[in-house]
Amino acid sequence: MLPSRTIKVTCILAFAITSIFAGTGFLGSMSPYVTAAVEPAAIPTPKKITTAPRGRKYSEFPHNAGAHKLACNTCHKFPSENWNKVRTGDDAFADITDYPKHQSCVGCHKQQFFRGTPPQICSICHTNPSSGNSSRHPFPNPREIFDKSLKGKTAQSDFVVGFPHDKHIEIVSSIRSRSAGFVNAAFVTNERRRAGEESCSVCHKTMSPQGNSPDEFVTKPPADLGEGFWLKRGTFKTAPTGHTTCFTCHSADSGILPAPESCGSCHKLKPIQPPADFDPKLATAVAIDDKVMMDSWRRRDSAGKFGHEFVAHVDLECATCHNVVKMNTADPISKKVHISSCATCHATATVDDGGVLTYEADKRKKDPSFQCVKCHLVFGKLPIPKSHLDAIKAAGGN
To answer: What is the pLDDT of residues 310-340, one digit of tens each?
Structure first.
């Protein structure tokens, strides 16, 4: 019989891998606010800062600034002293859960510490910097605490999490022979495919589903909405957030690398993100009070209106749209859903055959000012991409 720790590791590995299929992916999860590592040879020598670079505020700490590209442990010490107070009891595990100490900042920013009343730099960590108030914002890890704070509701991370799904699929495949109960994502039979779908649902649930509720929308829409768009329940899928899932396998006990203190193995400085089919004015009007949901909507770089709980989508298998084995959450291109996945249902040879892609492309040909609104929020104003027209041709259209 396997020891309980081994069983737990085996199960959680399978649990973690199921994040590869559906919904919003793993971007933004696993607390992406922790610094990314730089190899020691590449660590620049800290320089004393006397004046703020043009356009930069000392109330912010951009990790992508040249002087800040240091090894994580230059400032962050693993584990934090409060790791067993932020999470308690059986939920507690060694982690970085607090801001760096003052000495991490003073070495470069001594002048800023004594400039202003209160010093602007103190507001990065402290809620009301003063000699009689040492209270601080929650640290961005755990996210479930930080996201509910005043700072957390609007904070955007400097990092993305690199989660190479293909490597984790191989691990799950090797465990499968020991009856882990999950299957490789390279499906062969319908039976295996169904089992894979069950694996996806371990990590990915429909976010704020409507189910049998009469409330169709996430928030109450205006009375004059008509045919206008308002975010519906069941649009997004959840994904694990925080280190809890990862550290169950990647721990000192298991010896599975990367180790918990190797921040830079997973946390990467955020690359240039592709344009998103997202309307910030509309999002402000909808007024969602859920940081995870807002982050998911803000990252929609394919079809901003796609709803996972929509009647024609809810029974689709995840791999119908998502190219699982090529997905790496640090690479936004690898996560993008290709139009060919949509064209399976939405591109037809003629308008009369009912394909919405064909219908809207035909309307645009007749009226250049026509906006494609069935799938898109802002992309529908742009010229129709060649990939969309090619998909229609592949379906027999012209």
So the answer is: 999 998 888 889 887 788 888 888 888 999 9
Pick left, alpha or beta for residue 119 (phi over 0 → left; psi -120 to 50 → alpha; otherwise beta).
beta
Q: What are phi and psi of 232, to 5 degrees?
A: -100, 155
Structure tokens at 159: 């990092």
Place of tokens 């293909």: 166
Sign, CA dihedral 50-52-53-54, equals negative
Name the nearest CA neighbour of 210 among 232, 226, 228, 225.
232
66-111 pLDDT tens trace: 999 999 999 999 999 999 999 999 999 999 999 999 999 988 998 8
The one-letter amino acid code at 319 reads: A
Beta partners for residue 219, in sequence order: none
How far does CA 233 lie from the centroid of its chain? 19
Cβ pair 23, 319 in contact under 8 A = no
Q: Could you tell me which residues come within 8 angstroms of residue 346 by beta carbon, excluding any fewer than 6 positions away?
A: 355, 356, 357, 358, 375
The domain limits of the chain are 340-394
Task: Tell me the C-alpha distance between 192 and 186, whole Å.
Answer: 9
Please provide the DSSP assignment of 235-251 as one string: -SB----SSHHHHHHSS
Does residue 165 contact residue 20 with C-beta atoms inside 8 Å?
yes
> Residue 191 pLDDT more than 60?
no
Cis amide prior to 138 (ω within 30 degrees)? no
Tell whether the torsion through CA atoms of 321, 322, 324 and 327 is positive or negative: positive
How many Å is the Cα radius of gyration of the chain?
A: 24
Q: At what angle do helices 165-176 and 4-17 cross, to 10 degrees?
A: 130
